[in-house]
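User: Hey, quick favor. My workstation is busy. Could you predict this chain's structure for me?
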Amino acid sequence: MSEDQPAILANLTRMLSCIGPTCGDSIDWGAAEHVYGTSFPADYRAFIAAFGSGGIEDVVGVLTPAVSSAESQISNVSRLSESALTDEGVNRWALADQGRYRLEDLLIWGGTAAADTLCWITTDPDPDQWPVAVYTRLNPEWTVYPCGMAEFLLKLLRNQWHPYPISDTSLRHDTHPRFLHDKDEAAAYEAGRYPWE
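Assistant: No problem, here it is.
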């Protein structure tokens, strides 16, 4: 795992521009910790404070945690569904990671427009040591990336992963990626406007 999280966050914040009036979410992290039974990585908390829940170029979406057990986790950070946990097709890992991880230890923090799933592997008691795991529809198996969520996104936007880790490659040559908060995207659609023009 990278030791220089502040620099990673600073570089990500410089590279990714928030294009709507809503930038960042204020989360009761203590309440979220109570719901999930775990704290969250510092880089993720910083990303949510800076950007919030929303999408990068309508390609990659980032979720926020639920802060009460009554809150729906369909559009929030969640574990894999019961059906996914029992699906042999989902329990497929890249060769180097076979037998090392369990689906039950995955926590979903995001996804893509191409229906890829972005997770943490939550086995380490220190959330700052959680690696990222990605399940792609293009190559249906889990691949593990030994870094946090912010570093994963930064390298994704810089096109530094080889092979590219998600099915949609449209971000590979986007030198000025934009972030749009879910609230602003919903408001644009409600007004009859496509927000990504």
